[in-house]
Specification:
Belongs to the TMEM104 family. It is a multi-pass membrane protein. The protein is mainly alpha-helical and 251 residues long. Helix content is 68%, strand content 0%. The radius of gyration is 22 Å and the shape is globular.
Length: 251
């Protein structure tokens, strides 16, 4: 809906966006935002699991990511040409609510304004339950059980309180996405998977041998790519950290 509305406005030659060809000042924060976009990977298990014949799963995943990239590009480019960049909200849906001549239907304005609430309302409980269970696993004691207070109150609180505090104290989504994407996202998307691959291979090598051939092996199976991912992760952290320090210094 947002893409079509923006395209209609651009097609009428009423677009107010006149972006520069490139702005290198935004590159450091771009790393964090790009890492944060790993959210699209949440759909992969539900996409791959039902497939019985996984011989072409690589092609299917490539098509899936291509579609995701296409929607990202459409949404981003229509936004920067439709709206004035100085007035563009970090939460893109808010551009279609008050004081906007792109959409004149009140119901659709409210719908787009509340759209993030709908998505968060469905995703947050699932993510919160997963995080709570991860906390339990992290502090698990062999043969022991948690007291009722710890199990039912402490673990849910340490899961729910931090995001609520952040929501009350900041509405700067650009910085928030950049920071959470860079630090938490880098660990989830780059560091942990790379370490899992490296140590899994070392664990399996004595059992299956070095000459074993996996018909589902990745084209990036060389150990070089594990190191490359770790170097890339460190680079992302350095760029974002430098950007945060330099931005605060200018203020």
């Amino acid at each position: 809906m947002m893409i079509i509305l923006a395209l209609i406005r651009i097609g009428k030659d009423s677009g107010k966006g006149h972006p520069t060809v490139a702005s290198f000042s935004g590159v450091p924060n771009l790393f964090g935002v790009c890492v944060y976009s790993f959210m699209c990977q949440h759909s992969l298990p539900s996409l791959v699991t039902p497939i019985s014949d996984k011989t072409r799963v690589g092609t299917l995943v490539l098509v899936d990511y291509t579609l995701i990239l296409g929607f990202y590009i459409l949404l981003s480019f229509t936004a920067i040409f439709c709206f004035d960049s100085t007035l563009l909200h970090d939460m893109y849906t808010l551009n279609f609510t008050d004081n906007c001549d792109v959409l004149n239907i009140p119901f659709l304005r409210y719908f787009l304004g509340l759209f993030p609430v709908f998505t968060i309302s469905t995703n947050f409980p699932i993510i919160a339950v997963t995080l709570r269970n991860n906390w339990k696993t992290l502090f698990y004691r062999d043969g022991g059980t948690y007291p009722w207070v710890v199990d039912r109150i402490v673990f849910p609180l340490i899961t729910l309180v931090p995001p609520i505090i952040v929501a009350f104290f900041t509405n700067n989504l650009e910085s928030l996405v950049g920071i959470t994407g860079a630090y938490a996202g880098t660990g989830i998307q780059y560091i942990i998977p790379a370490c899992l691959v490296y140590y899994s291979r070392r664990h399996l090598e004595p059992t299956v041998g070095r000459d074993a051939i996996n018909k589902h092996r990745s084209p990036f199976r060389h150990t070089f790519w594990v190191g490359f991912v770790l170097v890339w992760a460190v680079s992302c952290l350095m760029f974002v950290t430098a950007n945060i320090i330099l931005t605060d210094t200018k203020k």
